[in-house]
Amino acid sequence: MSIIIGIDPGSSVTGYGLVEKRGSGIVYIGSGVIRLRASDPMPERLASIKRGLDEVIREYRPAAMAVEDIFISKNPKSALKLGQARGVIILAAAEAGIEVFEYAPRKVKRSVTGVGSAHKSQVGAMIIRLLRLDHEPACEDETDALAVAFCHAVRAGSPVGRIV
């Protein structure tokens, strides 16, 4: 199987994580974040996400992209910004010819920890263990992106989650 890029979308910080399924194992390839300036207008932040993601896609050439689905937010303005970020992320994948899959946060947590209601700290600790990382990811956004990529690697081959 080829490289999978997982994305934790955000309008302030967008995390990405890359894994590869090799035999029965899942191997860490790389990860990071695209940091955005809160003072920049939203169109500029969206352009920064696109440029940053295009660069990562060019460097690693992933075959599939897994994106965390939007959770229902109490703040409609925040949900709209997150939706805009996801749109730019999906556009970057489409332009690169990468198939996109989306997973609900509970499904990601269950794939990593076995429990859909796990805390972020539990997910982070398991990702470090499962991917045998020799370092702790810089922030939760990076860990969450690795968790989404891991979720897809576990579920690869299943049409569930595919964006049609």
Overview of this structure, please?
It is a single chain. With 164 residues, the chain is α/β, with parallel strands linked by helices. It has one domain: Ribonuclease H-like superfamily/Ribonuclease H (Nucleotidyltransferase, domain 5), CATH 3.30.420.10. It has five helices and five strands. The chain has helices spanning 42-60, 76-95, 105-113, 120-130, 140-155, and strands at 3-8, 13-22, 25-35, 64-68, 99-103. A five-stranded mixed beta sheet has the order 3-2-1-4-5. β2 and β3 form a beta hairpin. α1 (42-60) runs parallel beside α2 (76-95), α3 crosses α5 (140-155) and α4 (120-130) crosses α5 (140-155). The radius of gyration is 15 Å and the shape is globular.
